[in-house]
Structure formats: structure tokens, C-alpha cells
Design brief:
- By secondary structure, the protein is mostly beta strands.
- It has one domain (about 1-30, about 75-210).
- It contains one helix and 15 strands.
- Strands 1, 2, 3, 6, 9, 10, 12 and 13 form an eight-stranded antiparallel sheet that branches.
């Protein structure tokens, strides 16, 4: 059994008892070339000027320099991802989200869920594999028991500036076919399914609720 959105599968049965949800985090519709283009160089950093300030007058004046203006540190660190295809096991509970290991993904059950808690598994693809599917983005898979709704949240604060200013605030989550995990070069496995995700730019997160 599988659920389809716009005639394409984004949930598939795993071992007959669980569903694997494959999600991608990125901006707009992605076109992935056979050879990934070189990432643009970051803008040149301009060194702030120091300004001399005097107090008093004449030969008794004291001269001091104002501190250099601090520049916000750009966040450009993509998640390392899981080399192990099994991902990370996590116990998720009703009404709260739990981080999957040290990943950027948190999973929880909606407050109205029947289950109090369930065992789940999360896998974040390494950047090289994710790039084949979505270009500049993150791909993750969440495995849940069949018939269980879930809330998934991705923390993008560590790579909010990875592709220029405002990149993080434009991110959204979409569904991908399960075959994207094993056949990323197949165009059919890169077809996206729209999801109603929510981007909280202040918190640096994108979240989505997956129905049972």
C-alpha cells in the first residue's frame, strides 16, 4: 500500500509495518544537472574602519579608537548526514518534538495523536547524495509505524546563508519518492510533491505535519 500525491508516491511501506517518508528541504522547484555547478564564491569581506574619537581639548585631549564593528557570522555548514543507511533511532512522544541524535531533524506526534509514543528512525542524506536529488538542499527520511501521524521539524540555522542572504527564509519542505534514496539519478525519483510546510525565520526552522 502507498499514498500518492499528484500521482506520485511519497510514502512507501517498509517491512510491511512502517512507512518511510522522504522529505527534501530547499527553495522552489529544483533542476538538478548531471554535473553540479560550482557553488558561488561568498561576497568579499570588507574590513570595518576604526574611527578615532577625542575627549577633552588641546594637548590634554585623549585619543582612543572605537571597537571595530562586528559582522554577523555567516551560517554555511551543511548537515554532515548519516553514512549509515539505517539512520538514527528515536523515541517520539505526543505533544513534543525530539531531536534525532545530533541531526538537524526533530520529530514528534501531534497533540491529538492516539499514540502516546512510538519508535521512529530518521536518516539525513550526506550532502553529496542530497545534491543529486535537490541541488542546494537537504534530504531526509523518517520511518514511522503505519497509521501514525507525525510532526517533522528541520533546523536550518547552521546553513541559513549557504546560498546567499535570505536563503534560509525561503526554504520549504516537499515530498520525494522513496526511490530517491536509492536511485537519485532517475528523474522520476526527483519529482516533488507539495507539502504545507511552515518556515519560522526567527527560529530558523521549517516544519510540516504528516497525516496518518
Amino acid at each position: 500500500m502507498a499514498v500518492t500525491i499528484n500521482n506520485h508516491v511519497w510514502r512507501g511501506v517498509v517491512s510491511g509495518i512502517a512507512f518511510a517518508v522522504v522529505l527534501a528541504l530547499g527553495v522552489g522547484e529544483w533542476s538538478v544537472p548531471q554535473a553540479v555547478a560550482k557553488q558561488p564564491d561568498p561576497p568579499a569581506f570588507q574590513k570595518p574602519r576604526s574611527v578615532a574619537v577625542t575627549t577633552g581639548s588641546g594637548k590634554n585631549a585623549n585619543v582612543r579608537k572605537t571597537p571595530k564593528a562586528s559582522q554577523r557570522t555567516l551560517k554555511k555548514t551543511w548537515p554532515a548526514g548519516d553514512a549509515d543507511a539505517a539512520g538514527t533511532a528515536v523515541k517520539v512522544a505526543r505533544g513534543k518534538k525530539t531531536q534525532a541524535g545530533s541531526s538537524v531533524v526533530r520529530v514528534g506526534l501531534p497533540a491529538e495523536a492516539v499514540q502516546e509514543s512510538v519508535d521512529a528512525r530518521v536518516r539525513v542524506l550526506p550532502p553529496g547524495q542530497a545534491r543529486k536529488l535537490v541541488g542546494n538542499g537537504v534530504v531526509l527520511a523518517v520511518e514511522l509505524p503505519a497509521g501514525v501521524p507525525a510532526e517533522v521539524e528541520v533546523d536550518y540555522s547552521s546553513f541559513a546563508d549557504a546560498v546567499g542572504a535570505g536563503f534560509g527564509s525561503r526554504l520549504r519542505l516537499v515530498g520525494l519518492p522513496a526511490c530517491g534514496l536509492t536511485s537519485p539519478d532517475d528523474p522520476a525519483c526527483r519529482v516533488q510533491a507539495a507539502l504545507e510546510s511552515v518556515n519560522d525565520a526567527d527560529a530558523g526552522t521549517v516544519s510540516v505535519t504528516l497525516e496518518a
